[in-house]
Amino acid sequence: MNLVNDPRAAGQVRRYHTWAVIKDQSVAEHTWQIMRILLTIWPAAPRNVLVYALAHDMGEMAGDIQYPFKLMFTELKTGSEKAENHVRHEQRAHFGAPLEAHPLSKFERYVFKACDNLEMWEYGIRELNMGNKYANIIVTRMRSAIAENMNNIYSLKETQQAQQNPDVIANIQKYMKTRIQMESEIGKE
After folding, report:
1. Of 140, 58, 146, which is closest to residue 95 (Cα–Cα)?
2. Over the stretch 148-160, which tens digit does the pLDDT of each residue have?
3. How far apart are CA 151 and CA 184, in angstroms?
4. What is the sign, positive or negative, of the torsion defined by CA atoms of 88, 122, 115, 66?
5. Distance between CA atoms of 26 and 16, rounded to whole angstroms?
């Protein structure tokens, strides 16, 4: 069986495979966590955003290549994008895996990216609470990325989508505050 064709196998790819972590995370868990966060901060998220969130990492059959390496080596980024697109195409052809209906708008892309970063931030906080000091860089980078995404969302405040969804930024802030509170109470019971 060719695993490139199998969306189930794509969900089992290990994230952070080059990073010292206490708890492994699969692409499937990461995706589920993003969907949960997305529907918490944007309950009326349109179907195309949900499908995008579901399928966004399905192509990572070669592993989860870390962002800093893609940034340093553009040929690695280009090659991994080509490979991931090939895998997505194969999964659609063989299994009918979801196809993004149309590209995300800027607003949708920023909200999705905020959710992606929230998930990684939350994962990093949990790793820190379990004693993994290496996760501090995940928390720090993702906090900055979330702030940047909130600024990007805010910059679109005059667009129709932003005006129809005015609570997204407040919901992100509330989500972060709630997560920090929950994590600070771990072990106090």
Report:
1. 58
2. 999 999 999 999 9
3. 27
4. negative
5. 9
Distance CA 63, CA 80 (A): 10
Instruction: Answer yes or no: are the C-beta atoms of 130 and 183 closer than 8 Å.
Output: no
Tell me the Cα Rg of the chain: 17
95: nearest Cα among 53, 48, 55: 55
Q: Identify the band that residue 86 occupies on the pLDDT scale cut at 50, 70 and 90.
A: confident
Cβ atoms of 62 and 83 within 8 Å: the answer is: yes
CA–CA separation, 47 and 53 (whole Å): 10
pLDDT at position 140: 96
| b/e map 95-108, b = 16+ CB within 10 Å | eebbeeeeebbebb
Q: Per-domain residue ranges for the chain?
A: 3-184
| Domain formed by 3-184, architecture | Orthogonal Bundle (1.10)
Helix (H/G/I), strand (E/B), else coil: 138: helix
